[in-house]
Amino acid sequence: MAEISAKYEQLIHDLRQDFRPQREWGEGRGLFLVIGHFLVGVAAGAWLFGLLFDYSPGLFAGFLLAGVGGIAHLGFLGRPERFWKMARHVRTAWVARGFVGLTLFLAGAALYMPPLVFRAWPWHATSAIGWLGWLMAAAGMVILIVYMGFVYSASKGIPFWTSSLHPLLYMTYALRGGAAALLVAMAMLGVPTEEIAQRLITIWIAITAFLIILFVLEIQGALTGGNAAARRSAREMLSGRFAGYFYGGTLTLGLLVPLALLSGKLVPLSVAVLAAVGLLSALGDFFMKYTTIRAGIYTPLELRPARMR
Amino acid sequence: MRWGMVIDLKRCIGCYACQLACKAEHGTPPGVYYARVLKKEDGEYPTVRQFALPVLCNHCEDPPCVAACPTGASFKWEEDGIVDIDHDLCVGCRSCMMACPYTNRYFNDQPPHYFAQGMTPFEQARTERHQRNVVMKCNFCRDRVRAGKLPACVANCPTIARHFGDLDDPSSEISVLIKERGGFTLHPEAGTGPSVYYLPP
After folding, report:
1. Fewest CB within 10 A of the end CB: N or C in chain B?
2. Residue ranges of domains in chain B
């Protein structure tokens, strides 16, 4: 009761603000949505790199993370028992497309993966059922990588999220998360060859460099664009309520420490370093998504100044 | 037929009668406001003025909330253009709240009454129809309108600042007011085609 009262008081306070922060996604049970989005993105990336490197543990990591991500999404919904109704409006709603993508992915992966582990399984990975599973999982993977940024960019009420770069940014997060998941999997279960590990590190560095460019462009756009709410959001992230998460979590843990570790000057490169880089990279991405969502501010309701005079 | 509303900011005195009438009509739970009145300030000292800005769902012609809803719970009635919610379909994902450029949607996760001792019989009768953990918003009092009445906020405005009518009819009172008094909408840049117009203060 006290918690609910506090939420009500917070809402009344927020409604008086010109720049009203969004709290539904990211606060309270909303944290499950951030976790779900993060895990599902990493899962799709892990599946992609698992296929590219022909590395089964990457596929398993993807399947597991997607399952947990799906459960986290359910934990966020106000009416989780109605979740299946989310496939009804695929024609226009990105959330519905994401739900279909996740369903395809989980169902496809469940068909494709078991024969990779169990020799006595009723069908082989290369059989018709195996191929059907591969195709469903691949289609689901593409949807999961693509849809998430569009969920945000379709949110017209939150100008900070509606940048045209946002979908590309989220696709890049998914790829970086996938590379990070594979680094951790390889560190835990064994690196197939040193060359593969080296290639994966190179890919991680390239994706990270691309991500930095995209992020700088997006923040630059928000700070210099005409929308006051987007500017306010960017400031909240860089010097406001969420600056600690951004500088500590995203920049230091997710970027500077992994790069320092990979330089080989702090500690010699090893399996443990691979694991640390993967985990820290994923942690940094989580904080990035968390701060981006929490920094969302609704478009202020105001009259056009020209009309007032 | 497309129902619309015109709010005359010159007549509005910010008395909150619309907000209270709406609360009484719908029995909305704490934290849910179909109609709200914002107090705004404009100008710089010494030429400063305060004005009231009543806000509600804009029942857009191209509603982004409907497009964003994954279940089809948010929908637009074809026959009168009112944007409504089928609460039996809502999963509480709150995508519509993020999609609405007018921030006039609310998630109902509060207790259905304001006071610890519970509801009065009147409140109980009004609130029992509302589902918990779903999104709620104004529906232009569609039941009243279909019964030939005005929306509660319009009927109870003491200064007759609110007008309700058919936007598609060029001879309707609201169409004439919009044309003659330079009616405008909030956030036209959003391109959603709101059905709520304001007359300059």
Report:
1. N
2. 3-199
